[in-house]
Amino acid sequence: MTTIASRALCAGVFLTCMLTTSVAFAHAHLKQQSPAADTQVDKAPQALTLSFSEGIEAKFSGVTLTGPQQATVPVGAVALNEKDNKQMSVPVEQTLTSGDYTVKWHVVSVDGHKTQGQYRFSVK
Question: Cα–Cα distances in Å, from 122 out to 26, 37, 52, 82, 98?
Fold first, then answer.
């Protein structure tokens, strides 16, 4: 009888550890962006806005923007939304011309995990 109870207790502890561990090892994943991925915008954006699944550290995060012919487009410093540390904004320092653009991003979440990715959009 005690063997069944001890196995049940061990199983409960194991499941609790697995559930709490997955939360502790979460990474910041890109949830939303503006301009949106794989879209064509009529008006060139003045800033890029990226929203993540968890809070990020601005000083360890960044964005690069490349345009037609893989030319690098200058962007400003990352700024976090004052009310939401899951959202960052990066000013575009020159007017974008018509063409395809690639946004490459990297962030460090508040729990110290690094993630990176990229997406594309185009300007009409």
Answer: 31, 9, 22, 29, 7
Q: Is the pLDDT of residue 23 over 60?
A: no
Predicted TM-score (pTM) of this structure: 0.78
| Neighbour count for residue 65 (Cβ, 10 Å) | 21
Name the burial class of residue 59, with classes exposed (0-12), middle (13-18) and buried (19+) by CB atoms within 10 angstroms of its CB: exposed
Domains in the chain (CATH in brackets) are 27-123 (2.60.40.1220)
Residue tagged 């890109």 (tokens) = 30
| Cβ atoms 33, 50 nearer than 8 A | yes
Ordered DSSP codes for 2-61: HHHHHHHHHHHHHHHHHHHHHHHT----EEEEESPTT-EESS--SEEEEEESS-B-GGG-
Given a cut of 60, whether residue 24 has pLDDT beyond it is no
